Amino acid sequence: GRVQSVALRLAVEREKEIKAFKSQEYWRLLAKLQASGGGFEAEFREVNRQPVEIADQATADKLLEELHRCDWKVATSHHKEVLSKAPPPFITSLMQQAASVQLGFTARKTMTIAQQIYEGVDLGEGGPTGLITYMRTDSFRVSTDAVELARRIISEKFGAEYLPAKPNTFASRRGAQEAHEAVRPTYPERAPEQVEPRLTTDQAKLYRLVWNRFIASQMAPARYQVGLADVVAQRSGGAEHLFRAKGRHV
């Protein structure tokens, strides 16, 4: 109630911005190129070091005609290794976001299914078994026992190179309620493929999502090889057209 008027104003102002938005046509040019190391794509960026916007098909066609007469060469290229730290375990909002992006679930559907596997499902062990911890939480806190289990699973299932020297820790945001742990499997040793035969399709999808995220949260950083290349298309005495390619692989 205390924020109702402010929230309503923000919603109204945002809606006015949306209605006032004027869409504009724009075109992108992608070049499919072949090099000794394999094929790749590069996107058009500028002419003679000046950014160029392609506003219509006529401009795009004119550029294409010019480019077909050009010689192409890689002007510069850079490669470097980049580390990506392990993600934190799920809190409620992160679980809803991941389920929306990866599974196409609405927030309500996610919470309904999470409630079901939290309250328990029959795994044929003499009564319902709760598969995840409480799903309404804003804390990244995880019990020491669960962390040790996750580390053991990583070492056995994936290998020592995926296990950091010490457990990963994540600071909860200021004001977070620490009464509940992060959303995690209650029994991490129950791999998704073990319990899925006893779950509905949606329950299995959400449990796998939670299990994967929790195990990933205790893994070593991912290593990526990141590359950037500037490709120049130019004919003798003509304008210099710059294309840029970006890519990474694990």
Write the SSE topology.
Layout: H1 4-20, E1 30-35, E2 38-47, E3 50-51, H2 57-67, E4 71-84, H3 92-103, H4 107-119, E5 121-122, E6 128-129, H5 144-157, H6 192-195, H7 201-216, E7 222-234, E8 241-249
Antiparallel strand pairs: 1-2, 2-3, 2-8, 4-7, 5-6, 7-8
Helix pairs in contact: 3-7, 4-7
What does this 3D model show about the protein?
The chain is an alpha+beta fold and 250 residues long. It has seven helices and eight strands; from the N terminus they run αβββαβααββαααββ. It has helices spanning 4-20, 57-67, 92-103, 107-119, 144-157, 192-195, 201-216, and strands spanning 30-35, 38-47, 50-51, 71-84, 121-122, 128-129, 222-234, 241-249. Strands 1, 2, 3, 4, 7 and 8 form a six-stranded antiparallel β-sheet that branches. The chain has a two-stranded antiparallel ribbon with strand order 5-6. A hairpin with a 2-residue loop joins β1 (30-35) and β2 (38-47). α3 crosses α7 and α4 (107-119) packs across α7 (201-216). The protein is extended and about 80 Å long. The protein starts with a helix and ends with a strand. 19% of the residues are buried. The model has no long low-confidence stretch (mean pLDDT 94).
